[in-house]
TrEMBL record:
GO terms for cellular component: protein-DNA complex. One of its GO terms (molecular function) is DNA binding. Keywords: DNA-binding, Transcription, Transcription regulation. CDD domains: PBP2_LTTR_like_6. It comes from the Bacteria. Belongs to the LysR transcriptional regulatory family. InterPro entries: LysR_HTH_N, LysR_subst-bd, WH-like_DNA-bd_sf, WH_DNA-bd_sf. The lineage of its organism: Bacteria, Bacillati, Actinomycetota, Actinomycetes, Streptosporangiales. Residues 4-61 form the HTH lysR-type domain. This is LysR family transcriptional regulator. It comes from Nocardiopsis sinuspersici. SUPFAM superfamilies: Periplasmic binding protein-like II, Winged helix' DNA-binding domain.
Amino acid sequence: MTDWDLRKLRVLRALEEFGTVRATAEALNMTPSAVSQQLSSLSQQVGVALLEAHGRRVRLTEAAHALLRHTDIVLAQLERAEAELDGFARGEAGRVRVGAFATAIPSLVVPALNTLRREYPGLTTRVHQAEASEVYDLLSAGEVDIGLSLAAQAPSGHDGRYDRRELLTDPLDAALPVHHRLASARALRLRDLAEEPWIYGAAGPWRDITVAACAQAGFVPEQAHVASDWKAILDMVAAGMGVALVPRLAAADDTPGVSLRVLRSDQPRRHVVCAVRSGSGGRPQTAVVLRALADAAAGLGGKIVHSG
C-alpha cells in the first residue's frame, strides 16, 4: 500500500489551482525547483505520470486529476477530523458520566446537562443515579467521571483518591400536614416537633441525617412510619400521619396538603459536594461539566443557599 505524503498531495492540489510551477511555488513559499522535486517524487511514488509537457509549461495528466478527486475527499475528511479533535481539546466533544443521588438530579444535574446540550452538542453525557454513599465506589471503579454526593458520606479528607469541592448548602425544611397546629406557627424550631410522630427511612443517609438533626435539637424522634421515597413520605405527611425533614433540593413545595416550614433557629443543613478521581478534573470535558454543575448550583440562588 502506498505511503501517502500529504505535503506532496497539497503541492499537486496547489498546481491545479494556480496553473504554473512558479505561481505554485510563490503561493506555498517554496522554490520552483522544490515544487518540481515534490511532484516528481509523488509521480514515482504512485507509479504513474502526473505531469505532461504543454508548450513551455506543464499540465496535469488524467491520472493526476483522478488522484486529486480522492485527495479532495481525504483533505476534507482530515479537516473534519482536526475540527473534531479540536473539540476534544477544548472540552466540547467526548463523553462524561455523572453519578448523583436522587434529589440532586432534577435540581442540579438536569439543568446543567440541558445547558451543555445546547452549548456543546458534541459532548455526550450519561447520568447514573446512585445513593450518595455509593458515588465514590462508582468513581473508584471508573464507572462515572463525576460524582455528586453529600459531605457526610464522603471518605476521609485524607483519602487522596478523590478531589472534592462543595457545590451548595441544602437546608432541610420541616414538612407538616397543612392543617397541623404548628403549620402557621411563628419562628418554628425543630425542637418544637419533639413530640410529633416522624417519618423517615429504616437505614441509610436520610435516616442518619434526620436522627442526627433531632439529636442536635435535643430529642430522639419517634419513628411512626418507615419510608425512604420522597413522594411516599410527603403523601403520608399530607395525610396527617406524621412530620418529616425534607431537603429543599427535593422541591417538595408542590405537594398538596403539605406545609413546608423553614426552621429559623436550629435549621439543619446538608452539604452537597461533587467529586472526581484525583487529578482528573483538569480533563477538558470533565472541567466543562464541573463548570456547568457549579453554574446550576449558583443558579438555585436564594431557593437553596440563602433561605432559612
